[in-house]
Write a structure and sequence with these properties.
42% of the residues lie in helices and 9% in strands. It is built from 5 helices and 2 strands. It has a two-stranded parallel sheet with strand order 1-2. By secondary structure, it is mainly alpha-helical.
């Protein structure tokens, strides 16, 4: 959940609440399980359109999706004290899931080397 595992906030988060409940309320255990998953993040190299929304401060996590992805990925290393997961930036692609998954980086993320 992108805004943390603690209670509160303006958005209902039933899926986060169910995950915390299944972890016996142990949010640390839930975060450690997430760290142990095989996750591959893809960011579009051209996904740099400024973000505008009404639900949270827009530049809280970065000015655009590519920056948010980089900051989030860096925060995982800081939080867990070691590199976890994998990330690739798909050059010349904006916010387009089809182009992301069809790219060499996307195909590697799905099917491996």
């Amino acid at each position: 959940w992108e805004w943390g595992l603690e209670d509160g906030g303006r958005l209902p988060t039933s899926y986060r609440d169910r995950a915390v409940e299944r972890a016996g309320g142990n949010r640390t255990e839930l975060a450690c399980r997430y760290a142990g998953r095989d996750v591959y993040y893809l960011s579009g190299g051209d996904d740099t359109e400024p973000l505008v929304s009404s639900c949270e401060p827009d530049d809280f996590q970065g000015r655009n999706r590519r920056e948010r992805g980089a900051l989030f990925f860096a925060s995982l290393r800081m939080l867990f004290g070691r590199p976890i997961h994998r990330r690739a930036v798909v050059g010349s692609v904006g916010h387009d899931h089809a182009l992301m998954f069809e790219s060499p980086e996307g195909l590697r993320a799905i099917f491996g080397e």
